[in-house]
UniProtKB/TrEMBL annotation:
Family, similarity comment: Belongs to the ArsB family.
Membrane topology category: Multi-pass membrane protein
Protein name as annotated: Arsenical pump membrane protein
Species name: Formicincola oecophyllae
Cellular location(s): Cell membrane
Amino acid sequence: MLALVLFIITLALVITQPRGLGIGWSALGGAVAALLCGVITLQDIPVVWHIVWDATFTFVALIIISLILDEAGFFQWCALHVARWGRGRGALLFPLVVLMGAAMAALFANDGAALLLTPIVMALSERLRLQRAAALAFIMATGFVADTTSLPLVISNLVNIVSAGFFNVPFGAYAAAMVPVDMVALGATMGVLWLCWRKHIPATYRLAHLPSPASAMRDEGVFKAAFPLLGLVLTAYFITAPFHVPVCVVSGLAALALTLVAWRGGKVPVRLLLAKAPWQIVLFSLGMYLVVYGLRNAGLTGELATLLAWLGQHGALAATMGTGFLAAVMSSLMNNMPSTLVGALAIQQTPGLSAPVHDMMVYANVIGCDLGPKFTPVGSLATLLWLHVLASRDVRISWWDYMKAGFVMTPPVLAAALLALRWWVPLVR
């Protein structure tokens, strides 16, 4: 009970961040309290650090890359091209924006996609002179697709990185299993978003007030480096995986290379961007996961393992759907980052699982923790930050309105992704 109370208090502090504490210091404070209360021990610290360090520094590197590209105008350039590809037809522009969000989530993680693309889409809506309801449709689509299509690669979500590292899933093996599943999730997302927002999407829009994509380019050197660097990095992930090179090494070298290019060009405020990088995520990952490890020490994951064992006895379909929806519910209630470790520890402790069912549960836990946060605003930090970005631009979405949309749109996408997982994974084993 003490471990659970400490977790709830820590999560509340992370969400509210009183007096500007930030997510890092809030989580670290909870970890110190857990240590002082005997919920965790000093011996747990290196165990948890071993779980989170690669994911944490990979995330920081990806955000640095995203911030530099954004400051250079790369994403605005992409958005302006997408608007022109829409040819003035709203029914074509809407899926193109969703596809752009899915591509950003795959390469730059869901947080980068939600936080960087949202203001760009808002600015694009203003330039196209869309009505408020139409602009809101594009904004909601951007926020939703950032999470629902963050499945394909290990780097696409912090959840994926933690899970792949915990279970020693190679980059290539993960992609082979999850890229087809992500395609299904993307199709389901596109369909759900269209059904929910089609009445608000304009039939046509004017391109006359749209600037040329070239006008968005603020650093030509960064632009010239962007596509070759992204291609090289993506290739390096697959090549280095068999040699057990940490993902953060590849991401870190890419961030360093792009930083040097931007520094040399002198048009991107590199020092300012490095200061804006999410360094507190290092403290958050260690602190929050130490608090979660206290739940493991208190026996919570053991109880969850009993439930997973029962699901495993009822076949692969029950194990996949049950694990995925259980992870989704936990993520929506207690945030997806702690839920990821709770689910992973429980799967690790579950006795009597066959290898196929074990693999299904591992991937289903990832899907549930990637998609489950869309049920509630507290499900992921990316959603809370996304709502903050909207509020700073006088677009306010209440928690109740968000949850109404989340409960309508999330279940079909989650179910489609889990069914695709059940069908596909046995074929790639």
